């Protein structure tokens, strides 16, 4: 499982982190702190995941915690589900697609940026391909993810080894001051946002807990080992970038792994690394489709989305309707977004969601205090994570910047409230919706499945 923890953000975010951290030392500190808090978050997830080893991950934990809040709990878990399904999750898939298109088209346009329209087209093609692969079966999808995620880790390890060798010939680490005060709180927040994209892979593990072997044991082990591995690897890769390329190149490079390969392996090596990054990022995209569609499935089971998204294919057990929904929304965001816009919006949402999740963590400590916990995290850790998330979530709201980029998110949440009032609270239905649901089920050979959360809680 360790290879799945390395997010593809490591191939695009180092420049964003450095530009906003203001110095080499500041950037490395941000990477280290982000890794520590990723570990804390992962251990909190491990406690909840080992206690409730069900498909759906974070939504399942929030749902169980919200049962004690009555109607307010219903609203909270719905708005989390709505924001996750319509905004944060498809944005993640879009970011993976744009990363792939940036590296792949960098081979064709080595001296300039590729046309935006061409980037979008390539992103759409990769999104469709990931959808097709995940629609076959769980086994096929898992094998593809494993192979391609391993390629990603091999790329990062090869960068570290190459950098260690070339460090005897060149060292640009001190071309700029190690630490400066040339930054602001808002920029530091953006730097943390970019780091969190690279560390976000650990959150997908609990989403497929219901399909893991012995999740009560394997989730904590996977969290600790995977996050430690990725944190150390990310720090080493960034040090190598600064040593071989220099701070100026790190700040300006869109495809930093290609810049590194050009400086060390030459043009042929740059082409090879660009193709390898494209392939490995595709593995990350496939992994995202695999885990996130299970969360959408769980959300629909609880009546928060149309019933058609709570079905699975009767032959492959793949949630095809959830898969198609994520694919469609990802392609919509690919048509209107860019990496620089997606990263702050996406991570802001995930920080907000994680605030709800860690709050649910404390609620479950009270409402399910007698439930067996194969793993229990020290209380100081979730408290620290809560404070950190509160800082990251509040900063974009209170800082004096142009917040037009958050207008789309506000609009989507308002539409979610309207949907909740009409179709969840008052249980209205559109004319012909049942006929359409039946047609889609027959077309995709899908059938409803029961909720494994209820089974786990009863056990």
UniProtKB/TrEMBL annotation:
Main location: membrane
Coiled-coil residues: none
GO function terms (MF aspect): L-amino acid transmembrane transporter activity
Keyword hit for Transmembrane: yes
Tree of life domain: Eukaryota
Bilayer-crossing regions: 24-46, 116-140, 147-168, 188-209, 221-245, 265-290, 302-325, 345-367, 379-398, 404-424
Pfam family, one: AA_permease_2
Record key words, sorted: Membrane, Transmembrane, Transmembrane helix
Cell compartments where the protein resides: Membrane
GO biological process entries: amino acid transmembrane transport
The protein's name: Amino acid transporter, putative
Position of the signal peptide: none
Any single GO CC term annotated in Swiss-Prot or TrEMBL for this entry: membrane
Topological relation to the membrane, as annotated: Multi-pass membrane protein
